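DM from R.C. (forwarded with permission)

"hey, sorry to bug you on a friday — could you get me a structure for this? deadline for the figure draft is monday and I only need the backbone to look sensible"
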Amino acid sequence: PRLNNRAAAVARGEVLCLLNDDVEVLTPGWLEELVSFAVQPDIGAVGARLWYPDGTLQHGGVIMGIRGCAGHAHPGLERGAPGYFGRAVLQQELSAVTAACLAVRADVFAAVSGLDERLGVAVNDVDFCLRARQAGFRTVWTPFAELVHHESASRLPDDTPVRRARAAREIDLLRERWGAAVLHDPFYHRELSHAAADFRV
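My reply, with the result:
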């Protein structure tokens, strides 16, 4: 978050694109697709469709309440599959998207004070989207901006006691800050499973 906030402070463009260094572009018009939403006055964050290197879906948007916090929609979905009622192939409003590839107007980013640097790794993007939503801006996910995400290729996984403890602290902070908003997503029916965001009943 600190690097993104510093970059945003000196950037001169109207639209910012937060982009991990572990992604590969699949669709040539990906940035135009994201910006076409980001410039709309009622929209804050815009997220892309991200695939794992094996061709399965990594990010179809973020669903709140998964395993008590948040999870990516349609994890592991095969390419070409429409997902639940076509939600893996349709532009849609969601509660949050990942900052691995996220476009947002600079004025929106500034209005909500950027990313919270206390959430150093795990859920700063979710918190950002929730704060933008609280400020009156919608979050949108589009399947027409596609990238491959080599997840954690450039950061260490949470597989040591120290890193697991850091991740747990960040998740606890998110839960304390947002309460019911973490557990109940308006874009995901309560009768669907919260064990994973795969839209099982």
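R.C.: lifesaver. Strands lie at 15-19, 23-25, 43-51, 57-59, 62-64, 70-72, 92-94, 101-105, 138-149.
me: no worries. The helical segments are 2-10, 30-38, 106-111, 124-134, 161-178, 180-183.
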